[in-house]
User: What shape does this take?
Amino acid sequence: MTPPAIAAGGGWRTLFAKEVLRFWKVAFQTIAAPVLTALLYLLIFSHVLESHVAVFDGRVRYTSFLVPGLVMMSVLQNSFANSSSSLIQSKITGNLIFVLLTPLSPRELYAAYVAGAMVRGIAVGAGVFVVTLAFAPSLALPAQPLWVAVFALAGSAILGTLGLIAGLWAEKFDQLAAFQNFVIVPATFLSGVFYSIQSLPPFWQAASHANPFFYMIDGFRYGFFGLSDTSPWLSLGIVIAFGAGLATLTLALLARGWKLRP
Assistant: This one.
């Protein structure tokens, strides 16, 4: 007999709650540690570069410019880490079978894992924003708060989806680490977190525009300043298209049970 929660379509909420509790029980590691890392980045880069780097023609202080980039970088990296680590741990320990035995559809599995990843990413981003606000108090009132929310939610969902893809593909922890170190970390660090791409030579500006992470961070930063390196509407269109493509691919992989079943 099907449990009432699952029969009522609530099974995915149970899995979502499990995903949230999984990282919340070790919040010192999953939330506090990334917040401290971002704070150290801010202290070092702002101290060294504040008087040497001009962004948006000098209309924004470098430290203020840096804060949204660090917040969004934390959102993206921790959203990815949550879904990818959850799936690979379940595969290696063998308890993934208990998830697969439930009558959850691929859409419900996708929704639960990605929603859990979004909660962690947003929680870490909010923590980074709070602790760095003392260095840029003017950011407490963003110029376009709706854009801030839209790009934070879209970015965390996309990286949660990428985490699922990485978790499906990887069969051991070192493969997952390789995906994170050679794909996710370079893509975030080279997306304009620490600099405006307008300061780059033409070739590297063009290369940055080929990086979808750039549009997530640039659009998010636009929400704070009303200034950006490219049109926020273009950024939003690219982010939505990129996210839709990844979601379609992930749902297809889940439906096939790709690397989930022996």
Q: What stands out?
A: Residues 1-8 have pLDDT under 50 and may be disordered.
